[in-house]
Amino acid sequence: MARIGWEGVFPAVTTQFKSNYGLDIEATAKVIDGLIKDGVSGLIVCGTVGENTSLSRSEKVAVMEAAKDVSRGRVPVIAGVAEFTTAFASEVAKEAERVGLDGVMVMPALVYSSKPHETAAHFRGVAKATDLPVMVYNNPPIYKNDVTPDILASLSDCETIVCFKDSSGDTRRFTDTKNMVGDRFVLFSGLDDVVVESVMLGAVGWVSGMSNAFPQEGETLFRLAKAGRYEEARALYEWFMPLLHLDARPDLVQCIKLCEAIMGRGSELTRPPRLPLSAQERAEVEGIMDKALRNRPALPDVGLKSAA
Question: 68, 137, 237, 257: which is the annotated catalytic residue?
């Protein structure tokens, strides 16, 4: 099995666009650098929050290359792979390897509702196309195909599949997976509002949406939970939770980007088919942000250091 050092908070980085919806690679690079300087442990580019399926193949490669250049080895960089077919997904994974990224996060084949053995075959096919470590991404509420612990266990013989990110919200999956295959897979939480519970059950990493807007709060929360400092974690979690719930909405990308824009970290612009929030929805998110910022807590010391 390939050995990796993935742990801590890996924000699902937003992709920035110009007013004409063209890719703004300079602004995207600025977002990436800001997150690293604020002490996050790694990065996921071209994920759901990065609007992968709204990007052309060349745009995805451009984002990968920017992330590689900006990160300069300071943190691991993983690229999302979200394609309609195993062949297309394999091509993107090969591009990530050519660029020199640290791994790929592979989603099930999109659009097609697959049977369990077909879901497994897709991941196996992409993993065979690259030597990069593979994170299996499960998000049944959004992508419909459910990567159950049974399916994951069937991939144990594939050496490059090393990590499992679960966004189902069902934290029992972590325990079931460990009961089936022990510590075979590195476990990541993929849904913001169950992160503390996930860490308690064995997750060593968190692919986070809202950490785009609050990277230091996200990394601090994760480290508190990982260290078993649950009283301190609970207080921060309670403050954070209304924001973290936004990650579980169908319009999570618009919500996260709006919060990011309020914090001065990026633009709220999303590329169609994602449209701006309605006036009522926008007011709701702004209200959550206003309350959070008025009550923003002082963070406990968890050894968080900004990266130069």
Answer: 137
Instruction: Give CA–CA dist 161/115, Å, rounded.
Output: 20
CB-based contacts of 118, cutoff 8 Å, min separation 6: 109, 112
- 137 labelled catalytic: yes
Q: What is the pTM of this model?
A: 0.96
Q: What is the pLDDT of residues 138-162, one digit of tens each?
A: 999 888 899 999 999 999 999 999 9
Helices first, then strands: H and E counts in the chain: 12, 8
Instruction: Give pLDDT tens digits for 47-64.
Output: 999 999 999 999 999 999
Which residue intervals of the chain are DSSP H helices? 25-37, 57-71, 86-99, 116-128, 140-143, 149-153, 172-181, 195-200, 215-226, 230-244, 252-262, 279-294
User: What CA–CA distance (Å, rounded) separates 67 from 45?
Assistant: 8
What is the spatial distance between Cα 33 and Cα 91, in angstroms, rounded to a whole number?
A: 27
CA distance 238 to 252: 20
CA atoms within a 13 Å half-sphere pointing along the CA-CB vector of 96:
31
* Whether 257 is catalytic: no
Pick the catalytic residue from 60, 68, 165, 257.
165
Q: Distance between CA atoms of 303 and 308, rounded to whole angstroms?
A: 15
Residues in the chain: 308
